[in-house]
Design a protein that fits this description.
The chain is α+β, with helices and mostly antiparallel strands. The chain has 3 domains: 2-107, Release factor (Methane Monooxygenase Hydroxylase, Chain G, domain 1, Up-down Bundle), CATH 1.20.58; 119-218 and 309-355, Alpha-Beta Plaits (2-Layer Sandwich), CATH 3.30.70; 229-303, Double Stranded RNA Binding Domain (2-Layer Sandwich). It is built from 10 helices and 11 strands. The protein has helices at 2-22, 24-38, 47-80, 88-107, 130-150, 179-183, 245-249, 273-303, 339-343, 348-355, and strands spanning 119-125, 153-161, 167-175, 188-195, 204-215, 232-237, 253-258, 263-267, 315-320, 326-329, 335-336. The strands form 2 sheets. It has an 8-stranded mixed sheet with strand order 2-3-1-5-4-9-10-11, with helices on both faces. Strand 7 and strand 8 form a beta hairpin. Helix 1 runs antiparallel to helix 3, helix 1 (2-22) packs parallel to helix 4 and helix 2 runs antiparallel to helix 3.
Length: 357
């Protein structure tokens, strides 16, 4: 009895902390303003902007509904806590509210400008030939399973497969509210240590792969990042992805070279050239944004008296499968011996710790 009262008291205090920062009335005013814009008869003259506005309205309404539902449940808990007995069903309800509150607390850490956007994830095999390519494919599966668990949709934009096994690189889009915010700190170098399945002597092998995470930008985003026609070179080629005959026989794949920066992007997963072109342009815009952010970060480091050499990136996590089993994040020190679970997409413990960094 006392234990449940303490749990309810703790839940009430935690929710009170969220309530102070949520600004419910401000969000309701914003929702009404956004809803008014969605009723504009000329809204769908600009489909991209219309989709963005409808998504903003849907996300904001969902956020408010979740907050008010949680608020109502917490108030009900306080009322029930005055009773002398707790039923088994009530115990289950308390457990569920604890989970919902934890989820809402994590979402409160996602307050950066682009956290709510879709994510574009790229995985590149490091040095090490087939070993590194196999590791890249393992990471691809890991993130795909993580997204499945969260109900997020994944779409491969571009993939280069290895000659023997694995993948040299893959770029895919993750569609889901706050997918960029949740995944952004997964960017960096991931290290694998295991007995090589490609070596007859089963020697211990260390492999590396680089993970890049970018927010997906639409045409209406970042008006200051204009891509001029004269600054890009378009190339069309036949897709090498596993698609239908139309994809293989027709030059549907698109490569875009941005002349001022030398950035090259490509997309080849769609059956139609125009859709691949749009995907490639979206990816280019994300990379140009990232380049600008990186330059600003370098300037800030120089002003503080320090500069790091451009390199593959900082190693963020080690996955050891031999001679012992352990996955350890080198930034948060979170570790687990459940390597199979992690490689099957059970990343919540790591990502929650990253969000609180």
């Amino acid at each position: 009895m006392q234990d449940f009262k303490e749990r309810i008291k703790e839940l009430t205090e935690r929710f009170s902390g969220i309530d102070k920062n949520f600004s419910l009335e401000v969000k309701k005013t914003e929702l009404l303003s956004t809803e008014a814009k969605t009723t504009d008869p000329d809204l769908w003259n600009d489909p991209e902007n219309a989709k963005r506005l409808m998504r903003e309205f849907s996300d904001l309404k969902r956020e408010i509904d979740e907050f008010e539902n949680l608020q109502s449940q917490i108030n009900t808990l306080e009322e029930f806590s005055k009773d002398e007995e707790f039923s088994e069903e009530f115990t289950k309800e308390v457990n569920q509210i604890e989970k919902d509150l934890k989820k809402f607390e994590l979402a409160s850490f996602l307050s950066e400008p682009y956290d709510a956007k879709n994510a574009i994830v790229s995985i590149h095999a490091g040095q090490g030939g087939v070993e590194a390519m196999d590791w890249a494919s393992m990471l691809f599966r890991m993130y795909h399973r993580f997204c499945e668990r969260r109900g997020w949709k994944t779409d491969v934009l571009d993939m280069t497969e290895g000659e023997e096994a694995g993948i040299k690189s893959v770029t895919f889009k993750v569609s889901g509210t706050y997918s960029y915010g949740y995944l952004k700190k997964e960017a960096g170098t991931h290290r694998l240590v295991r007995q090589s399945p490609f070596n007859a002597d089963k020697l211990r092998q260390t492999s590396f792969a680089l993970v890049e995470i970018l927010p997906e930008f639409e045409e209406v985003d970042l008006p200051d990042t204009e891509i001029k026609d004269e600054d890009v070179e378009l190339q069309f080629f036949r897709s090498s992805s596993k698609g239908g005959q139309n994809v293989q026989k027709v030059s549907t794949a698109v490569r875009i070279i941005h002349k001022p920066t030398g950035i090259t992007v490509s997309a080849q997963s769609e059956r139609f050239q125009e859709q691949n072109r749009k995907n490639a342009l979206s990816l280019l815009k994300s990379k140009l944004w990232h380049l600008k952010e990186s330059e600003l970060a370098s300037e800030r480091k120089e002003l503080k008296g320090g500069r790091t050499m451009a390199s593959w990136g900082t190693q963020i996590r080690s996955y050891v499968l031999h001679p012992y089993k352990m996955v350890k994040d080198l930034r948060t020190n979170v570790e687990t011996g459940n390597t199979e679970g992690v490689l099957d997409g059970e990343l919540d413990e790591f990502i929650e710790a990253e969000l609180k960094m």
